[in-house]
Amino acid sequence: MSILERIDGDLKVAMKSSDKVSVSTLRMVKASLKNLEIEKGELSDDDVIGVLSTLAKQRRESIAEFDKGGRRDLADQERGELAVILSYLPEQLSEEELADLVREAVRETGATSLKDMGRVMQSLMPRLKGRADGRLVSQKVKELLSTG
């Protein structure tokens, strides 16, 4: 079953059970996917993962801003949406797994300093699609290149 089919099925279940957070989140996801489908035509699972990753990133950024602004209610709402979105993404990598992949990419690209960060990120991000937050990956690459 494709991710898109799973989203459709889960939306129906959420509507029947009156799960307002899931219904609104899945409708928003479907709208974003429909916009991409209009642009590109038929969507692959990679396209769907890309959209879900973008939406998850937006939610994480919103949570940070709402927490900073003292808006706990809005931050909690975003956390609920993020949980729904993350349930469709591949399992997130652990810190150790991510560090191992970063070290491997640094070796493969021959990176030695922060100047090479772009090359490392370019090599690494396609392998991590949907499995790690880009900001966290960037932070790990910086740590490794600045110490090594």
Structure notes:
This protein has 2 domains: 3-86, Uncharacterised protein YqeY/AIM41, N-terminal domain (Hypothetical Protein Yqey, Chain: A, domain1, Orthogonal Bundle); 95-147, Arc Repressor Mutant, subunit A. It has 148 residues and is mostly helical. It is built from 7 helices and no strands. The model has no long low-confidence stretch (mean pLDDT 89). Helix 5 (95-109) crosses helix 7.
Question: What's the helix and strand layout?
Answer:
Elements: H1 3-16, H2 20-40, H3 45-68, H4 72-86, H5 95-109, H6 117-128, H7 134-147
Helix pairs in contact: 1-2, 2-3, 2-4, 3-4, 5-6, 5-7, 6-7
Number of strands: 0
Mean pLDDT level: 89
Secondary structure class reads mainly alpha
Oligomer: single chain
- Main sheet characteristics: none
Uncertain segments are none
H-E order: HHHHHHH
- How many angstroms separate the termini? 44 Å
The CATH homologous superfamily of the largest domain is termed Uncharacterised protein YqeY/AIM41, N-terminal domain
Q: What's the helix count? A: 7
CATH class designation of the largest domain = Mainly Alpha
Specify the CATH architecture of the largest domain: Orthogonal Bundle
Number of domains: 2
| Beta-strand percent range | under 5%
What is the helix fraction of residues, given as a range? over 70%
CATH topology of the largest domain: Hypothetical Protein Yqey, Chain: A, domain1
Shape: globular
Rounded radius of gyration (Å): 18 Å
